[in-house]
Design goal:
Elements: H1 2-24, E1 29-38, E2 43-48, E3 61-65, H2 68-91, H3 95-98, E4 109-114, E5 142-147
Antiparallel strand pairs: 1-2, 1-4, 2-3, 4-5
Length: 148
C-alpha cells in the first residue's frame, strides 16, 4: 500500500510542477512604474515592479499603449483650466489650485494587462487585424489600463 501511495504522491507532485510551469509562462496583468510618458502618442515606457525570483529588476517595456480611460480626465482638466481660472478670478474660489495634477505621468504606478494574442498588427482604427505570430499571453502585448 505504501508503494501505491508513493506513486500517487509522485504523480500529484509532478502534475503540480507542470501546472506551475505552465502558469508561470502566462502573463495576465502586472503593476509597473511609468519611467516616461509620451502624452502626444499616449504610450509609456514602464518598469514592472515585481522582482524576478532571484530578486533582480525585470526588463522595461517600451512604447506601451495607454487606454484612453487612463488619460481622458487628465486631458479634460487641462483643457478646462483656462475656464476654471476665469471662475477663480470672479469668485476667488481657488479652484485651479485645488485641481489634482495628472494621474498618468512619469512616476505613476499603473495596472498593465497582457492581451491574449499578438497585437503587433493592431492599429488604432479598430479594424480586424491579422496576427503576426502565435504569441499568446505575453507581456510584449501589454496595455496600461489604470493608475493606482
Amino acid at each position: 500500500m505504501t508503494k501505491q501511495k508513493d506513486k500517487q504522491d509522485a504523480w500529484y507532485n509532478a502534475m503540480q510542477k507542470l501546472v506551475h510551469a505552465i502558469t508561470t509562462e502566462i502573463d495576465c496583468a502586472y503593476l509597473a512604474r511609468v519611467v516616461s510618458y509620451d502624452i502626444k502618442n499616449h504610450t509609456a515606457d514602464i518598469q514592472p515592479l515585481a522582482a524576478t525570483s532571484d530578486g533582480a529588476k525585470r526588463a522595461q517595456y517600451l512604447d506601451v499603449p495607454v487606454s484612453s480611460t487612463v488619460y481622458a480626465v487628465d486631458e479634460l482638466l487641462e483643457a478646462l483650466k483656462s475656464e476654471f481660472k476665469i471662475v477663480d478670478k470672479k469668485t476667488g474660489s481657488g479652484l485651479v489650485d485645488a485641481l489634482p495634477g495628472p494621474s498618468m505621468a512619469t512616476g505613476a504606478v499603473v495596472v498593465v494587462v497582457c492581451l491574449d494574442q499578438d497585437s503587433d498588427n493592431y492599429s488604432a482604427d479598430g479594424d480586424i487585424y491579422s496576427l503576426a505570430s502565435s504569441r499568446q499571453h505575453s507581456a510584449n502585448d501589454s496595455i496600461i489600463v489604470g493608475v493606482m
